[in-house]
């Protein structure tokens, strides 16, 4: 991975230009995903034990990613190139407006999109995660009164536990109501007791980035129908806005948790 990272920095396109920073980072991310799927997990654990400085660490991929990011940014800035394309946030009010639209559609498609948007907003997650979550990794936490999903992290081999709860202010973004409407309109898709039943089967088994693109398509379908939605909004905006909302929430001491 380190050698591949070095290649991304030095390699050039057919026209002689270097690759944009985000392109390099996507290449590294994709290469890591393929590696995790094809390399024996025990070998992967051995890799995790050594970081770039020869010391024991579980953050070896993060360090490699950040180093590549820094080098490509410096290279791009020195050539006067655009470093980062700004992502337009898709905030709470926009999600509520879209979900109102999807509810009024009175269709399985509309209720599915509403459930997916609500889940992504609450989990501050990427669109691809909704395509890999299975019912067998979902459960009710009796202590916290939360519904929990285990979201697989393909690049690290780990699992993140995402908690979902009720929304006391707006029914449109209430996770329980969204999932109930979604399940009631799916024509019995979830009566099977087979293993690995996907929570959102229409978002599963798609090509790389397919689930995120499908979420973006759902957002795009609201342009012209929902006043708050603009043409430059994508699935990435859900994560950006949710992150800001989480950091600025008055009941969360994010800074204190970090320091």
Describe the structure.
This protein is mainly α. It has helices spanning 2-10, 21-38, 41-48, 60-78, 92-104, 108-123, 175-184, 210-220, 236-247, 254-258; strands at 138-141, 146-153, 158-164. The protein has a 3-stranded antiparallel beta sheet with strand order 1-2-3, covered by helices on one side. Helix 5 runs antiparallel to helix 6 (108-123) and helix 6 crosses helix 9 (236-247). Mean pLDDT is 80; it is low at 45-56.
Rg from alpha-carbon coordinates: 20 Å
**How large is the count of helical segments?**
10
* Percent in helix: 40-55%
Q: Per the principal axes of the C-alpha atoms, what is the gross shape?
A: globular
Biggest pleated sheet: 3 strands, antiparallel
Kindly, what is the distance between the CA atoms of the first and last residues, rounded to a whole number of angstroms? 31 Å
Order of helices and strands: HHHHHHEEEHHHH
Q: Report strand %.
A: 5-15%
**Biggest β-sheet: strands ordered side by side in the sheet:** 1-2-3
In total, the number of strands is 3
Q: What's the pLDDT, averaged over the residues?
A: 80
Low-confidence regions: 45-56
Which secondary-structure class do the elements indicate?
mainly alpha
Secondary structure topology:
Layout lengths: L1 H9 L10 H18 L2 H8 L11 H19 L13 H13 L3 H16 L14 E4 L4 E8 L4 E7 L10 H10 L25 H11 L15 H12 L6 H5 L1
Helix pairs in contact: 1-4, 2-4, 5-6, 6-7, 6-9
């Amino acid at each position: 991975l380190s050698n591949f990272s070095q290649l991304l920095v030095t390699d050039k396109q057919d026209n002689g230009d270097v690759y944009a920073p985000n392109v390099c980072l996507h290449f590294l991310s994709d290469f890591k995903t393929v590696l995790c799927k094809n390399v024996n997990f025990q070998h992967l654990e051995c890799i995790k034990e050594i970081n770039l400085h020869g010391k024991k660490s579980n953050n070896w991929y993060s360090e490699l990613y950040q180093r590549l990011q820094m080098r490509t940014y410096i290279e791009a800035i020195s050539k006067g190139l655009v470093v980062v394309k700004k992502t337009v946030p898709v905030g709470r009010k926009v999600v509520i407006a879209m979900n109102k639209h999807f509810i009024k559609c009175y269709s399985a498609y509309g209720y599915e999109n509403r459930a997916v948007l609500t889940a992504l907003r609450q989990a501050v997650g990427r669109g691809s995660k909704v395509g890999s979550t299975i019912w067998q990794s979902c459960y009710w936490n009796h202590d916290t009164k939360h519904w929990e999903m285990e979201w697989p992290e393909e690049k690290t081999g780990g699992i993140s536990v995402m908690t979902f709860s009720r929304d006391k202010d707006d029914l449109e973004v209430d996770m329980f109501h969204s999932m109930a409407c979604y399940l009631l309109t799916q024509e019995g898709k979830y009566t099977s007791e087979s293993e690995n039943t996907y929570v959102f089967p229409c978002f599963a088994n798609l090509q790389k980035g397919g689930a995120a693109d499908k979420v973006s398509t759902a957002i795009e379908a609201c342009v012209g129908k929902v006043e708050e939605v603009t043409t430059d909004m994508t699935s990435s905006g859900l994560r950006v806005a949710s992150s800001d909302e989480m950091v600025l929430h008055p009941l969360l001491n994010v800074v204190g948790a970090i320091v």
